[in-house]
Amino acid sequence: xxxxxxxxxxYMLDFRQIVSNGRKKIGxxxxxxxxxxxxxGTPEQYxxxxxxxxxxxxxxxxxxQGEELGSFSSIEKQxxxxxIERVLSEIRTLSEVIGENKIHGLDANGHKALSExxxxxxxxxxxxxxxxxxxxxxxxxxxxxGMNRSYGVEIFTTNYDLLCEEALEKTKTPYFDGFxxxxxxxxxxxxxxxxxxxxxxxxxxxxxxxxxxTSNDEGETIRIPVCEKSVMVYPSHIKYSQTQAAPFSxxxxxxxxxxxxxxxxxxxxxxxxxDAHISSKISECLAANPTSAVxxxxxxxxxxxxxxxxxAAKNPNLSVYCKNGAVxxxxxAKWKRGSLPNKDWEQIQTEFLNNKDEFLLGDFKLLARxxxxxxxxxxxxxxxxSEGIDE
Length: 391
Hints:
38% of the residues lie in helices and 15% in strands.
C-alpha cells in the first residue's frame, strides 16, 4: 500500500473559504512564538521583537549580577535542558523549603529575591511596542474587521505583552478584555460568561495575565495604564495552580465554553502545546464536542512538534499543520501538491508554500498575511473529495 499523503491545496482551499466566511464562530490562540516572527533587527541580523524561551532565558541571565547571577548559573548547570521555566521553578521551590540553609550560594530569602529579580526582567523584556511599520498584529486585525460577522472574534493569548491591545487601538477596533472602567479598571467575570457584546467587538482573553494588570489594596486584580508589579502567571511549576484562581479561572472557563459551543473553530499560532494545563483543556473540550475544531499552525516539522502531533493523534478534530506535513483526522502524513482548483490558485499557493514544498503558515507573520488577503474573498471551486488523502 502506498504511503499516505495530505493534499495541501485541498486543505488550504477549505481553510481559505472558512476564514472568508463571516458566519463562522472563530477564535485565535496566540502563543509566545507569535512576536518572535517580527524582526526588529536587520535583514542580516535577525532580532525578534520579543524572544522565545531560549532568548528570554539569555536576557534574564544577562540582567543578573553578583550572587544572583552565580546562583542562576549554578542551577542552570544542574538542570537538564534548562530554560527560564525550569530555573524559576527550582528557585521558587528552594525559597519555600531551605530556610536559612544556603544552596547555590543563597538562602530562602535570597532565592525569593532572585525570583523577584527574574520576574521583573521578564516584564521588562516583553514590554515592547509594535513597530511603526505594517506588522502581523495589524494585519490580523485587518482580517477581523474585513467582513461583517455574525459572531465576535475571540483572541486568547498566553502572552503578557500589550501588542494585541496596541493593534486593536491603532485600528480603532472596539474590544473587551474582561475589565470595566478606565482609571482603575476592575475585572468583571460575569461579563465574560455572558459574552453578549455586539459582533464587531473583539474579545481579548489574556490567559496568563498582562504587564498592565496589578493588585489593589484589597488584593483584587485591576488594569491600569502603567504598574510597577504585574499580575502574571510566570513560567514555573506553579502555573497550573495559579490559573485555578481568579481572575485566570474565569478566562480559562471562557476558553472551555468557547470550545464547547456548536461549530466553533480555534486557530492556534505560535503555540507549542507544551503547556499541559492548556493542552489538556483543549483536548478535553474537543472530546466532549465533536462539532468544534482546532487548526494548529506549527513552525517546525512533524518530527519536532511532538506535543501538538501527539495530541492530534488522539483528537481527530485537532488538525496540526507543520512545515513538512500534517496530522489531519488523526492521520499523520507528508504534504503533497494537488491539482489547481482555479486559474488564480498558483499565485495564492505562494502565500502558504515555498519552492521547497515547505508549508509557511506556521510563521505568525505569514499566517496573518494569508488571513488579511483572504478576508472577504471566497473562492468557489472545490477540489474533488478524493484528493484529500491518497493511500
